[in-house]
Design the sequence.
């Protein structure tokens, strides 16, 4: 019998729109303050896409950087899985726009929708395509123009989110027959959802319900409680599935929604803050882009290196949540991921 496939994570990239809106600037428009936002969330600023700049533009920029990082030409990609809550249009999939902009005519491209957990869902989907032998080189993208679905009069939500994109490249590796586990690449993914909690975080519009795009509505305290409880459980599930303990993890790359949630996860895992990647300060919650933005930032600045074991997690509307464990780069790799 021939070997089995596993996905190596061989490149990453990110893109943030140029325009920055600080907490102080928001405080000029609505009843809030830099102090409240920083103390309750850790956020200092967010990036906002320019007029006419769409989710596909941010996704394309991140994808190009990830491809260059992987040393791969776009023509080698045979699958694009793009996670977004803010697609350019109701249809077609934003992934197909990125596909054509990259000049790719082979394979498939589609979107997945799991809001802030979107990147973990996209990673799991892509990894399962690779494991099934249906894709060899995959672009996995999380991209959002989330500020477009915010109610700028609602201070309980509008201060929390920003726009951005992050991408990774997966490459199939053949694991020799008889070995059921590669020590590199996507080691496991774990997805969950529970639609009963829909009303704690949703958008009050859509093509089939109201015919409008709608705005984000959230019960922050409830989401906070769900986040701490469900992310803790899925982290435990991931460690158990891989026979690991928290001290084996080199980096926690958490969803960037609230510094207090990030700290709660780190404390629970007994991880020192140096092992936890946080960039919520610079770009707030970018929903599906949040995890790959953080991953890419830590790879770029040299913190995350080839061979490092990285645990990613995220939760968002649905509720939908999940985690993924990845050993970054290529076995005997050059040090770049
Ligand atoms: O990615 C999707 C997942 N989303 C999340 O993970 C979000 C999870 N939730 C949170 O991060 C937090 O619940 C928030 C940051 C949203 C809110 O923090 P909190 O500590 O739970 O505050 P709170 O909702 O209990 O509000 C405390 C007070 C309230 O005033 P009163 O009732 O105590 O007088 C709010 O009206 O803060 C007020 N408040 C604000 N004040 C200034 C709410 N938003 C603001 C604001 N500026 N922007």
Sequence:
């Amino acid at each position: 019998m021939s070997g089995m496939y596993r996905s190596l994570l061989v490149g990453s990239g990110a893109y943030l729109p140029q325009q920055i809106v600080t907490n102080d600037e928001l405080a000029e428009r609505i009843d809030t303050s830099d102090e409240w936002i920083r103390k309750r969330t850790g956020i200092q600023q967010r990036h906002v896409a320019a007029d006419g700049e769409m989710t596909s533009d941010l996704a394309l920029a991140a994808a190009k950087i990830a491809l260059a990082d992987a040393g791969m030409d776009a023509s080698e990609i045979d699958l694009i899985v793009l996670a977004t809550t803010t697609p350019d249009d109701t249809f077609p999939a934003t992934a197909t726009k990125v596909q054509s902009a990259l000049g790719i005519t082979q394979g498939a491209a589609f979107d997945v929708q799991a809001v802030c957990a979107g990147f973990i869902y996209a990673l799991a989907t892509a990894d399962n395509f690779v494991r099934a032998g249906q894709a060899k080189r995959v672009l996995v993208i999380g991209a959002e123009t989330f500020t477009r679905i915010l109610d700028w009069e609602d201070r309980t939500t509008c201060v929390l989110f920003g726009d951005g994109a992050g991408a990774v490249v997966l490459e199939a590796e053949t694991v020799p027959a008889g070995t059921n586990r590669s020590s590199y690449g996507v080691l496991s993914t774990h997805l969950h959802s529970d639609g009963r909690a829909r009303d704690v975080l949703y958008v009050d519009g859509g093509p089939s319900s109201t015919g409008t795009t709608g705005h984000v509505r959230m019960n922050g305290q409830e989401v906070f409680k769900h986040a701490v409880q469900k992310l803790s459980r899925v982290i435990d599930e991931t460690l158990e599935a891989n026979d690991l303990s928290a001290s084996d993890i080199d980096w926690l790359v958490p969803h960037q929604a609230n510094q207090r949630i990030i700290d709660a996860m780190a404390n629970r895992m007994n991880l020192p803050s140096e092992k936890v990647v946080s960039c919520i300060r610079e770009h707030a919650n970018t929903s599906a882009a949040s995890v790959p933005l953080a991953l890419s930032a830590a790879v770029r600045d040299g913190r995350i290196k080839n061979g490092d074991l990285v645990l990613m997690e995220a939760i968002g509307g649905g509720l939908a949540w999940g985690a993924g464990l990845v050993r970054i780069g290529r076995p005997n790799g050059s040090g770049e991921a």
Observations:
- The CA atoms of residues 223 and 320 lie 11 Å apart.
- The mean pLDDT is 95.
- The chain has ten helices and 13 strands.
- Residues 32, 36-37, 40-41, 116, 155-156, 159, 220-221, 223-224, 227, 257-258, 261, 285, 316 surround oxa(dethia)-CoA (CB under 6 Å).
